[in-house]
Amino acid sequence: MNKKRCSRCRANLDTTEFNANKAKMDGLDNLCRVCRAELNREYRADLGAYNDALQPGPRVRYKCSACGGLFPESAFHHNRTSRRGRDYQCKECRSLDRSKRYRKRRTEEQREDRRQNEGE
User: Fold this and answer.
1) What is the three-state SS of the chain?
2) pLDDT tens digit sequence for 83-104
3) Domain residue spans of the chain
4) Full-model pTM
5) Distance CA 75, CA 62 (A)
């Protein structure tokens, strides 16, 4: 069998221990599979730390008019008519407000239906 030397661990290994690489003259990678996998793991770990450092988190924070909390932009529904392009209430407060109004309207409708039924 043919042997090749890994340029990282300096071991003489069979050519079956190397990945294919058409860019190389012999058609094989210059690192053995174990060293290439280790190198890729290190690269991905370094890249992840670099990307995490680039992501400072949400910079824009808005104040909810109902609860007064500060939230990222994504916590507010889109609203083209408002100046900032977002609702003034956060999604949670808006949901509570709408459910209260819905319940109030339903009870008023039920009262009106009862009055009409009593009058008949």
Assistant:
1) CCEEECCCCCCEEEHHHEEECCCCCCCEEEEEHHHHHHHHHHHHHHHHHHHHHHCCCCCCEEECCCCCCEEEHHHCCECCCCCCCECCCCHHHHHHHHHHHHHHHHHHHHHHHHHHHHHC
2) 888 888 999 999 998 888 888 8
3) 3-54, 61-119
4) 0.44
5) 9
